[in-house]
Each structure stands twice: as C-alpha cells, then as structure tokens.
C-alpha cells in the first residue's frame, strides 16, 4: 500500500513539473526600457496605448531604446508593424532573426534586396480605398482633387462590382478609361457606361492621378506591388499576430519612400476603423521609425483613432526641428499634443533642446531676498520658474541615456536604455 501511494505521488509530481515547463511565458509589466535610480523602467500596455514620441540624434541610443519595445511585442506575441523610414538593413535582419527565433510569423517588405509584395488595397470598401490613394498625392487645387476623387471612386466601385482582385497594378490598368469602357460594354452595364461618359469630359484634368500610379508600378520597384502570388495583407498579418517589417529606402527612392509610407499609414487607418466598428481593442504595436520621411496629417489621424483600436504607436525621429521645417509647425504641435509618453535622448540642435525642455516643463522656485537698511532687516520671497530639465542637460546626455516623461502617470526620470536581445 505504501509503495502504491509513493508511486501515485511520483506520477503527480512528474505531471506538475512537466506542465510548469510548458507554461507560456508570463505577461510582463510592460516593455522594459531600462533602469533609473536602480529601478526598472517599464512602459505598460495601457500607457503604450496612449502613444509615445521618441526623439534622439544619431548615436544617442534611440534605436536601442526602440528595440526594447520590439523585443517585448515579439515575446508577448502581439501583432507588430515596423515602418523603418531610414532603411536600416542590419536592424531588419536582426528583427527577422529574433522573430523567427521566437516562432513568430514574419513578413518583410524592402525597396531593395529580398522582399515580399505588398497590397495596400486589401482592406476597406471602395470609398476607403479611394481616400487611401488620394492621400498619396499633393493637390494644388481642391477642384482637381474633387474631380479625381469622383473618378477614382467610380473606378473602384466598378471593379468591386465585378469582383476583380485589386492591387496597385490592376488599379493603374483600369484607371485608363478605355479599359473601363471595354469592361462595362462587355457586361452591358449601362449605369457604369453613363458614369464613365460623365467622367470622360474631365479626364484630361485628372489624368495626373493615373500618371502618378503608372510611374510607381512601372518603376524598378513596381514588381513589389504585383500581388498575383503571395503578398503582405496587413489585416491578415495582424489577425495572425505576425511581425511585419517595412524597410523603406529614402536615399535611393525618396519620392517612392514618401508615397509608400503614406499608403501603409492609410492601410493601418482602415484596419483601425474596422477594429473600432467591431469593438476590438486588442493591442497592436506600430513602430514608425524616422517617420518624418512620410509624416503628414494621416499620421495624426492614425494616432487620434488608434487608441480606441488598441494601437500602441511609437513615433521616432532624430530631430523635431527637421519635422517642423519640412512638414510645418502645426503638424509638429499636433503630434506632440496627441502623445502622452515621451522619450528624449541627446539632441545637438539647440532649438530641439529648448523645445524638449519646454515640453518637459518648469517648476516653481522660492527665493528669499534679504533687505537690509539702517533700521532693520526684512525678507522678501520671490517666486521664479526654472526648467525641470535644462536644454544643456538634453544636449549633453551620454549615449544610451534619456529622459522619460509620462503624462498619464506624472512621471519624469533620467534612465539608461536596456540592451535588448535584438541588439546582442
């Protein structure tokens, strides 16, 4: 009997030991960014969902800091979309290796070298797709924009009606009115023929939209948008909890990098809208690295609606001054206003250092002034304000150090970035 009880005890012990080894890795308190005052600095999912602005000049340790977030998202099996606006092939390879090491689905797009195709026209209805395409082009006059919107929406509506698989190459083909007329006549679709006849009157004024797409799909990177075989579908990748890495090449393809960045952002906006309508606020991590390459009001729209959709967006740039110079002060102010977490690493630009010091804010000091005359001694208390972090302190931060400011938690600290596994 004793031997039987002992045997049962051994079997139960082995069972619990085996299950303890196969348990999933526990959820962390958040992304471990580094340490401050011998304490770990975590950015929780809740805080990350309120969006983070990361600023640091070349060599300040900005990428090292961001990689802690990337590592966390991969380990915790969150879907993650990384848009690399500087085209860092080395980082691309390290993120890919770490994702595969952790058995995560990995999709990659690169404007040079190995790459999958990408279809930014999978999600959303024809109106949403119309907005996505219109946003990639600068319109000098609202009149032409409205004409192009009407034309593009009609084209997309007809293609959807006949269930034609859509990508940028297909869209470019059918933006030619001749192709559309042939298809409408083939299906004896009088309604579509009437719409196309109306558009034909203004076709010359809106042909620039077709030319813009033609240039892209017939360029040396045009094959990356031929989705007749396997391609990146961002919404499907999100549902798979996959890691998606977009490696842009702004030096080699400055115009296309800007255009593609905007397409990806608008694709993400469509996914966010769908998630909100489905009341799905599960977390998705979005890293927009060197986002000044493709920044415009669409980025602001993404972070505005992204919180309700569970998007944890990280916007990283070398310089706020560059962003305001090329994109305007209003856009910079909107981005600063819509983020609630800030990571500031070294800045060489005095203007940036001063702006960061102002974002962090001031505190009130009490100064006692002693007034002495022949009759008596009196005291006067003066209230003055001083920076919590001075511009010089921002300019002389050592590599790997930064200031973390969390508005929701009322936290300000100087921290040292952790060196993640991705950087090893």
**What is the tally of helical segments?**
17
For CATH, the homologous superfamily of the largest domain is named as P-loop containing nucleotide triphosphate hydrolases
Q: Specify the overall morphology.
A: elongated
Beta content: 15-25%
Instruction: Output the radius of gyration.
Output: 27 Å
Q: Give the number of domains.
A: 2
Q: Average pLDDT across residues?
A: 87
Rounded to the nearest angstrom, the distance between the terminal CA atoms is 56 Å
Stretches with pLDDT under 50, minimum 5 residues: 14-26
Task: For the largest sheet, list the strands in their spatial order.
Answer: 2-1-15-14-11-3-10-9-4-8-5
CATH hierarchy: architecture of the largest domain:
3-Layer(aba) Sandwich
Main β-sheet description: 11 strands, mixed
Helix content: 40-55%
Describe this structure in words.
The chain is an alpha/beta fold and 424 residues long. It folds into 2 domains: 39-116 and 247-361 and 391-423, Rossmann fold (3-Layer(aba) Sandwich); 126-217. Helices cover 47% and strands 21% of the residues. It contains 17 helices and 15 strands. The protein has helices spanning 2-22, 45-48, 62-75, 89-101, 126-134, 142-161, 168-174, 177-186, 190-200, 203-217, 234-239, 254-277, 297-306, 320-327, 329-338, 350-360, 391-395; strands at residues 31-36, 39-43, 52-55, 80-84, 106-110, 117-118, 231-232, 243-247, 284-289, 311-317, 341-345, 362-372, 377-387, 401-406, 411-417. The protein has an 11-stranded mixed beta sheet, with helices on both faces. A two-stranded parallel ribbon has the order 6-7. A two-stranded antiparallel sheet has the order 12-13. Helix 6 (142-161) packs antiparallel against helix 9 (190-200), helix 7 (168-174) packs antiparallel against helix 10 (203-217) and helix 8 runs antiparallel to helix 9. The model is unreliable at 14-26 (pLDDT under 50).
